[in-house]
Amino acid sequence: MRTRIDLDGRIVRLSNQDKELYPGFTKGQVVDYYVELAPVLLPHLANRPVTLRRWPDGVSGPSFFEKNLSRSAPDWVESVRIATPGSTKDREYADFLLISDAATLAWAANLAALELHIPQWTVGARGARKLPDLLVFDLDPGPGTSIVECCRVAELIGEHLGEHGLTGYPKTSGSKGMQLYVPIRVSTWERPADYAKRLAERLTAEHPRSITATMSRSARDGKVFIDWSQNNGKKTTIAPYSLRGREQPSASTPITWDEVRACAAPEDLVFGPEDVLKRVSADGDLLADLHDHPETLPRSA
Known about the structure:
Layout: E1 4-7, E2 10-13, E3 20-22, E4 25-26, H1 27-45, E5 51-54, E6 64-66, E7 78-83, E8 93-98, H2 102-110, E9 113-118, E10 134-141, H3 147-163, E11 169-172, E12 178-185, H4 191-206, E13 211-212, E14 224-227, E15 237-238, E16 243-244, E17 250-251, H5 257-262, H6 273-283, E18 295-296
Parallel strand pairs: 12-18, 13-14
Antiparallel strand pairs: 1-2, 3-4, 5-6, 5-9, 7-8, 9-15, 10-12, 10-14, 11-12, 16-17
Helix pairs in contact: 1-2, 1-6
């Protein structure tokens, strides 16, 4: 059993690599998954504070979110100090993890950090928060719906974005729903959430039987919830390629618009670790140009 791994000259100490974090899927396999995906995953984590969600005893046990960098982290692991006013733990700031290399990915995976959550903004060289560079539409299927209905809503959003010269990049959440990323350029923190809310409310008015922009769970039966609030600067979204802490290993996977349009059953868009690795080997990163051409949001949705 491995006890250490050398990645670009950095030694990552490993523990309990044969421990199952999912049924039939070990911590060692989680480490291998993240290390192999490092070339396509790292660009999406670059300069974004990472919140870890850890399952020390595997997905059958409890989990917890970790924002503050562990004191036991190797000295080569990077972090950034960010103010956290209103923190549930009454902390004025947190030292968030920054993941910029495969060694740090492996170190986090060895902590049983199955999920990586990131904001829609980055930090600069001195740790200052930059304005959001991504808009996200988080599509959450209510009772009686699935990712199939989310795909239909994604198509509606995609059509609207195209009319305004914007491009949507779809990915599965790795759980029940999906997200659409839109590369943007804004001058205020409030602009992305304002635009997303306006569009969500417009689509709700046009399709009241199948879409809701209301956060109340009682309003979601038979509908897809467009969670525009994910654009709040305090919130995070599951990172592309991140595993999810579900009964079986699945991952948040970039998909094509053809796959969105063709989706007819929930299982059409379920991807396990091996599926993701095969897709990347065959097609590369479907989000590779996500940040190449940001656009200014229109004044109205």
